[in-house]
Amino acid sequence: SQKIEQNSEALNIQEGKTATLTCNYTNYSPAYLQWYRQDPGRGPVFLLLIRENEKEKRKERLKVTFDTTLKQSLFHITASQPADSATYLCALTGGGNKLTFGTGTQLKVEL
Amino acid sequence: DAGVIQSPRHEVTEMGQEVTLRCKPISGHNSLFWYRQTMMRGLELLIYFNNNVPIDDSGMPEDRFSAKMPNASFSTLKIQPSEPRDSAVYFCASSLGDRDTGELFFGEGSRLTVL
Q: With pLDDT > 70 as the criterion, what percentage of chain A qualifies?
């Protein structure tokens, strides 16, 4: 069956450090993978998209990698700040524009 | 643009009652999605529409759930009769329907509590 797995345990890091979140998938051959941020009581907000033929993508302090051999994407936030604390969701499509989400990883950045 | 607008933001109802959730997508977007989010199961896709036509409703839990999109600017998700296990946050999202990107724009959600 198709699965998208993210660490269910919260990730706690100190301000200024790099946060690294993992997204693993099975039985998908996605053309692209997306990352979203969700704050409590709010809807998810799109952050980045990476295509299957791209190894890495950057946007300001964010970096995403995509390894289709390992079936894994890594999401990095450099120089993390308390305002980065949120739940981060990865999402991918198994066909068409039907987007399936992982369960998300909660990130807490402490002072 | 006001973004995706959902109503009501909160709904508390009793088991057996009918619940109707509403969504106004972003103008010009061709695809509309209904998701349900719970702690146990995360964000689940219930149904999505392209150009007002339902494309995939395989995520709709059972016949008690129905969704309509009578025009490009309005969609409803109805639960009749509601049950306590339907308690969740229901999100509507829209996109340009471009297969190249597929970026979704979410509303703020409708939190449903069925007693």
A: 97
